[in-house]
């Protein structure tokens, strides 16, 4: 937990620290897992999870299966299955989600040899999870919709979360539900850390009438805004950039002091296929998987040898809250979600 509190302050030095260590370690040799299984809970897009699993299968011949559910739902599912775990891996979701599971004793300790290629700032010091991507919260706007119906009214683009309270945006906003979505919980925790708990919940209470729909998953708002169903969506910038990459008129604005995630992978304690799970962690943390994932998702890799995706901006060049504490976000999760639900 102590290291989590220092990640933000140290993140701009992470690439330098890695480069100074000399040549990158080779990816771990993967075992032949023919006849063995692997079950994964995937927290991001289904096709993205499948691409990583197919890459892993190519090297190991493993027989895999997966379920795509949001990060918040994944945490709840693993907690509910603690007596008889049904899966081996939690793939993706912010570190605070993995920290909740670690604190509950539901993760298997595993320090992958490939993690040597990733700065310590992006890993649990006890070896219960390691991050393979990072990304900030962002305000996504349908540029065509804005230019047609809102710019002619002389309105300014929303550049802060407070700007979203403008009556002109009532019914034009879509965001995930912090009770089920890791993306939305990061947003909630981030605003709490900047404004303080009381002011933050006052803000979210005022925001309620502005929001037309709360989605269960974090990536859905970007898709709905990109298609023109809504003007504004709140989620991670990589989901918005992916929509833009697919030809939709998406504009992304990272507000001053925005929260950010470090997306991690962890092994579920007592899962049915621990050998396969540890090998999959090795693969996901490697360069091949990093290249596949970043090119497909627009996410920033925690590896210095994986290029920044075209159209994306390095994290240290964005106006994020460099003091955002993943530890505080994890510790306050149950209480903050309870208070969020009480706003109804």
Describe this structure in words.
The protein is of the alpha/beta class and 344 residues long. The chain has two domains: 2-134 and 261-315, Periplasmic binding protein-like II (D-Maltodextrin-Binding Protein, domain 2); 136-259 and 334-341, D-Maltodextrin-Binding Protein, domain 2 (3-Layer(aba) Sandwich). The chain is 39% helix and 18% strand. The chain contains 14 helices and eleven strands. The protein has helices spanning 2-10, 14-20, 46-60, 71-80, 95-103, 143-149, 182-195, 197-207, 220-226, 237-245, 274-284, 287-297, 326-331, 333-341; strands at residues 37-42, 63-68, 89-94, 107-108, 130-142, 173-176, 211-215, 232-236, 250-253, 260-268, 300-301. Strands 1, 2, 3, 4, 5, 6, 7, 8, 9, 10 and 11 form an eleven-stranded mixed β-sheet that branches. Strand 1 (37-42), helix 3 and strand 2 (63-68) form a beta-alpha-beta unit. Helix 3 packs antiparallel against helix 12 and helix 9 (220-226) runs parallel beside helix 10 (237-245). The radius of gyration is 20 Å and the shape is globular. Residues 1-26 have low confidence and may be disordered.
Radius of gyration (Å): 20 Å
Number of domains as seen in the coordinates: 2
**Which shape, going by the Cα principal axes?**
globular
Low-confidence stretches: 1-26
Oligomeric assembly: single chain
What CATH architecture label of the largest domain applies? Answer: 3-Layer(aba) Sandwich
Per DSSP, the total helix count is: 14
CATH H-level name of the largest domain... which superfamily?
A: Periplasmic binding protein-like II
> What is CATH's topology name of the largest domain?
D-Maltodextrin-Binding Protein, domain 2
Strand tally, please? 11
User: Helix fraction?
Assistant: 25-40%
Structural class of the secondary elements? alpha/beta
Largest sheet: 11 strands, mixed
Q: What order do the helices and strands follow?
A: HHEHEHEHEEHEHHEHEHEEHHEHH
Q: Kindly estimate the percentage of residues that lie in beta strands according to DSSP.
A: 15-25%
By CATH reckoning, the class of the largest domain would read Alpha Beta
What is the residue-mean pLDDT, rounded to a whole number?
Answer: 91
- The N- and C-terminal alpha carbons lie at a distance of 32 Å
